[in-house]
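Question (not urgent): is this output format expected?
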Amino acid sequence: MEICPTAQPEIVPEPAPVPEPAPAPSPAPNVGGDDVRATRVIGEGGRRAQFVTWLIVVLAVVVVGGIGAGVWSMMGGSKPSTSSDGDDSDVLARYEKKCIACDSLINNGDNAEYEPLLKAKTLLDDIRVVEKSDEAEQSGEVLDKSKGLQERLDVKLKAASRSWEQAGDAQLEIPDYTQACQYYEIANKLAPSDTLRYKIDMCVGR
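Got this back:
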């Protein structure tokens, strides 16, 4: 019995892969091309628009200013005053204010509350300076309220000074020379005198 050889299967060759088409080359950037030209055009257009806007604003300001000046001129305008009326009024107003303040201080001061009297004494010096100033003379007004104020103030100054001098004398009897000296100094501020200066020196020497 003959043995037949085993039949070999038929080998079919695989088809070769079809190569894929190569990608198309991308276009090179257009350096210095349309984009650059567009940017340049836009920049030039922006600068031109800014110049035109600035020119319009300047022209508008000039026109409005000219119109305003013309209207002001037609209405007569106002020229700076060269007179001294304003200064005179200011001097008189300050003078009246000082006189009123001095009068109030005199009314409020007394033997115990002597500080308002001292303030009125200083303020009266300022009032007299205003009365003798060139501005007061140019105003044509008679400024002499210091006389009446001084008379009223002198009455209170002398009374208060005498009261503090008596208080100092009382301290000498204790004797408390330090306290007496303080009272004499107050009295001398209100109404200076040689007697008070002597008493002050006497107390300081003890």
